[in-house]
Amino acid sequence: MNVPEARSSEVETMLTKRKPSAASSARRQKVAATESRHTPSPAQAGPREPSSTLSHRREPSSMLDRRREPWTGLEDEVKRLRAEVQRRERLGMVLEGLLESLCDGTVALDFRGMLVHVSDSLVESSIDGLPGLPAPVLERLREEGAAIVDGRPRRFELIWDREDLGRRVYEVAVATGRALDQGDRPFLTVFAFHDRTRMVELEGELERARDLAALGRMAATVAHEVRNPLAGIQGFATLLRRDLHDRPELQTQVDRILLGVDGANRIVADLLEYSRPLTLHKESISLEALLAESLAAAQISKRWTPQLQIDVDVDPVLPVCVGDRRLLLQVLNNLYDNAIDAMGGSGCLSVRARSAGGVGGERIRIVVRDSGCGLTAEEVARVFEPFYTSKPGGTGLGLAIVRRVVEAHRGHVHVVSAPGKGTSVVLELPVERRSEPIERSGRSTGPVSEREAA
Question: Which residue has the higher pLDDT, 220 or 226?
């Protein structure tokens, strides 16, 4: 047998060995049948459930409770914090009300100097027009707050020209709240305002009363020692002028003598008026009629010129004022004279009358304003001092008498002025108690020209 034939027979023998025998095939079929009898079909077994569902069903309830425990504790903490916030808010409201009742207003600034609280009694329009504090007042508070050393409270005086109340004098107490956990850094500065305006006024009145006592004693001597010689000079000068009817140039010199005597008599009369005790003859007065009478008298005075104008705005419904008619007319005439002199013979004299509330009840506010050159802050501070004047030939007693008469009526007077912006004198007089406002059908007509205020 050659080699190829031998190799062919070996291959056939190997293939024969790899074929399964009939006995082995039968055994495999028997095992498969046995397994099929013990294994359920898919229809019999039903749908298979995910393993996650099976494991969830097997998870015990204790594990779920342990998962809920952190959330339950967090909800309890939130409830506790909300209750604490509400408690602190209520406590803050109580403390704020208590602080407001102990002073006339409070202001609070944060650590950056920003305004975080201001009492309603102190609110005014700021630079941007929003309710707040004027820029000069806010800047002063920041400076005083920054000047606190070692957190010790301090006090300072603040003079504030209020829009509705005029000049007010406040004593301000300032204290800081500090955060101990942040290096003792101040986080809040609180200012408590105490209005000392009335106290300052009483102190001034006491000082003026002492001056008046000495001035009254001197006035009696002046009246006796000066007025009688002045009367003699005036009488003889009048006779001399009559005898010099044919010499006009000499009559002019005599007229100068008489003019000087008139000025001296006016000073003596003002001095006596200022020093003597005031006796008020009170009566119910219609402010509209009083203003019309005083303005009519101003238009026929020697000071009046055609270049002057009058602007009057009186509330048609005003309460009745109680006071001495003669003295109130004198007050208005003094104010008109000062206004005309300040305008130099040309300008606008403005008069306003309105009802206004205030400390002590309802009041009537009268504002007399001129369009003159205005006053400096130093002049405004001294304008009510006796014998202080800024105009040639003035006695310096006109506004001093005005304040004395107004205060005798339990009223108030103050001046608002600035260089180049004119001067306003504000009078506040109490109204008659238990009286109804007088309804007027229209404003008085006469020599006074009126127009509505813009």
Answer: 226
Task: Tell whether pTM > 0.90.
Answer: no
Q: Which residue's structure tokens are 């008298």?
A: 297
Structure tokens at 396: 């310096």
Q: For domain 88-195, which CATH number applies: 3.75.10.10, 3.40.50.300, 3.30.450.20, 3.40.50.2000?
A: 3.30.450.20
3-state secondary structure the chain: CCHHHHHHHHHHHHHHHHCCCHHHHHHHHHHHHHHHHHCCCHHHHCCCCCHHHHHHHHCCHHHHHHHHHHHHHHHHHHHHHHHHHHHHHHHHHHHHHHHHHHCCCEEEEECCCCEEEECHHHCEECCCCCEECCHHHHHHHHHHHHCCCCCCCEEEEEEEEECCCEEEEEEEEEEEEEEHHHCCEEEEEEEEEEECHHHHHHHHHHHHHHHHHHHHHHHHHHHHHHHHHHHHHHHHHHHHHHHCCCCHHHHHHHHHHHHHHHHHHHHHHHHHHHHCCCCCCEEEECHHHHHHHHHHHHHCCCCCCCCEEEEEEECCEECCEEEEHHHHHHHHHHHHHHHHHHHCCCEEEEEEEEEECCCCCCEEEEEEEECCCCCCHHHHHHCCCCCCCCCCCCCCCHHHHHHHHHHHCCCEEEEEECCCCCEEEEEEEEECCCCCCEECCCCCCCCCCCCCCC
Q: Which amino acid is at 6?
A: A
CA distance 1 to 4: 8
- Residue 191 · residue 247 · CB < 8 Å: no
The pLDDT of residue 96: 66
Residue 191 CA to chain centroid, in angstroms? 14
Question: How do the domains of the chain map onto residue ranges?
Answer: 88-195, 200-275, 282-439
Q: How far apart are the C-alpha atoms of 393 and 31, rounded to whole Å?
A: 144
Could you read off the pLDDT of 124-139 as tens digits, one per residue?
766 565 677 888 888 9
- Has residue 451 got a pLDDT over 80? no
* pLDDT category of residue 327 using cuts at 50, 70 and 90: very high
- The number of beta carbons lying within 10 Å of the beta carbon of residue 137 is 19
Alpha carbons 92 and 102: distance in angstroms, whole number: 15
* C-beta of residue 292 within 8 angstroms of C-beta of residue 444: yes
Going by C-alpha positions, the residue among 361, 368, 372 that lies closest to residue 431 is 361
Taking the C-alpha atoms of residue 374 and residue 300, their distance in angstroms, rounded to an integer, is 25
φ and ψ at residue 46, rounded to 5 degrees = 80, 175
CATH fold for domain 282-439: Heat Shock Protein 90 (3.30.565)
Distance CA 86, CA 92 (A): 10
